[in-house]
Amino acid sequence: AKGKAFQVLSPESLMTIVSSPKDVRDIALATNDQLSLHAAAKEILQPEYTMNGFNWHDQRGIEGIGFVRTLRTLLTQHLPQLTPGTRVIIERTFADEVGRGGSINGNICLPDQEALSLVKKVVTKISGLAFFGRDRMEDDAFMDAAYYYNEDVLYGAEVLRLIPQFLVPVVGKVLPLFLGRQRTFYNGLVEMIEERVNAPSPDKKYVCVLIKNDVIQWIIDTSPKSNPWSPGRMAFEVMAIWFGSVQGLATTLTFALFNLSTHPEYIQPLREEMESPAGGEFFVKGEGLPLMDSFLKESSRWTPVESVTTRRCALKDFTFSNGTHVEKGNWICIPVGPMLRDASYYPQPDTFNGFRFASPELVGGAPSIQPEGPSKFTDISDTWQVWGTGRITCPGRYFVSYVMKHIMVHILENYEPEMVQKTGKHTLDWRTLTLPRPGVKVDFKPRA
């Protein structure tokens, strides 16, 4: 479309697709009562039926946005303290699933341990530590429900999208009967929150021991004070954040693992960086490793999870500064997939260049291939819409980067990863999503 807006009829509404920097900035400047991510997400996910009865407001911020401070500030600041527990989880999970000192069954993962399954198990446990502390880490039923929560929501929502609209309320009332893990997850969260809310105030002498530092506690602390939330409402907030973190993180990391396995020329320089002072700095601060950072960013450019992002539902008629008009109830989206393969934004877009975003002095001094120069995985820009747009960007992106780097470091420390299936497609497309193809395995040979 060469930056021009165009329209597509989707199952939900008439979508206006925009990509020019000016149009993107118009979206960023729109007020909450003009364009709504919440309304679009509610239309897709049908949370009233797929998230144990959660039915959020169409307009962002009506009940506060404490989750932004929870993820962007409190969780990010807490990342260095998570490192010891994170490292233990990664080491134990890989030892259990792949085998101590190497892979098993002739150096090939067992059929039920394909790449996505392994990565998601590790990511779920690390996210559990960050979200719940150690309160429910040993509760197998609860953690199993947390592991499958995102899939259950997506499958339930897909059923509702495929049936006639008049049947949605009928089928929606029956659907929770098949989503028992939802209730397990929700009830476990409510129980945890009630225990904390009703706990007596700790003696100041022991406050440093008793205070919790995890997402659940921060949601409790940042919830509205003028109109206090119930434990159930807080549980819904945690469930919404969980949905936005685990599946996308696991999928993005799986693609990075695929790219590392198919581009082994990056293994040695990444190891050298990891074993340099930059590696020690990462373990202390929870951020850094610029070559690894560039590799993860290029992997996300090469295989984005979503081909369309920044979905917004017009809560009232909306007109872009160039005159493009969107009627109330219709959607606006950004085609992030095609943008990430646009040569005007990303030179040589059809070549995987793991260090395209790194500083030139780190990769031999050649000029940066990117017109804007070096950049970080977690950066936001008009042309890098992976994390969102304007004021509504992913507040947990620093946690995502942190987890991905720790798991990649462990793999580089211990294994020589290779794709078991050397040829064929490793991904599949489902609506606007790109997902790892089921059964695709990575061979984790012991590091020489």
Describe this structure in words.
- Helix 8 crosses helix 11 (231-243).
- This protein has a domain at 63-294 and 398-421: Orthogonal Bundle (Cytochrome p450), CATH 1.10.630.10.
- The model is unreliable at 101-112 and 205-209 (pLDDT under 50).
- With 448 residues, it is α+β, with helices and mostly antiparallel strands.
- The chain has 17 helices and 13 strands.
- A hairpin with a 2-residue loop joins strand 11 (427-430) and strand 12.
- 48% of the residues lie in helices and 10% in strands.
- It is globular, with a radius of gyration of 22 Å.
- 42% of the residues are buried.
Average pLDDT, to the nearest integer? 89
Strands, count: 13
Low-confidence stretches: 101-112, 205-209
CATH topology of the domain at 63-294 and 398-421: Cytochrome p450
Instruction: Assign the CATH architecture of the domain at 63-294 and 398-421.
Output: Orthogonal Bundle
Classified by CATH, the class of the domain at 63-294 and 398-421 is Mainly Alpha
SSE arrangement, N to C: EEHEHHHHHHHHHHHHHHEEEEHEEHEEEE
Q: What's the CATH H-level homologous superfamily of the domain at 63-294 and 398-421? A: Cytochrome P450
Subcellular location: Membrane
InterPro entries: Cyt_P450 (IPR001128), Cyt_P450_E_grp-IV (IPR002403), Cyt_P450_sf (IPR036396)
Family: Belongs to the cytochrome P450 family.
Pfam family, one: p450
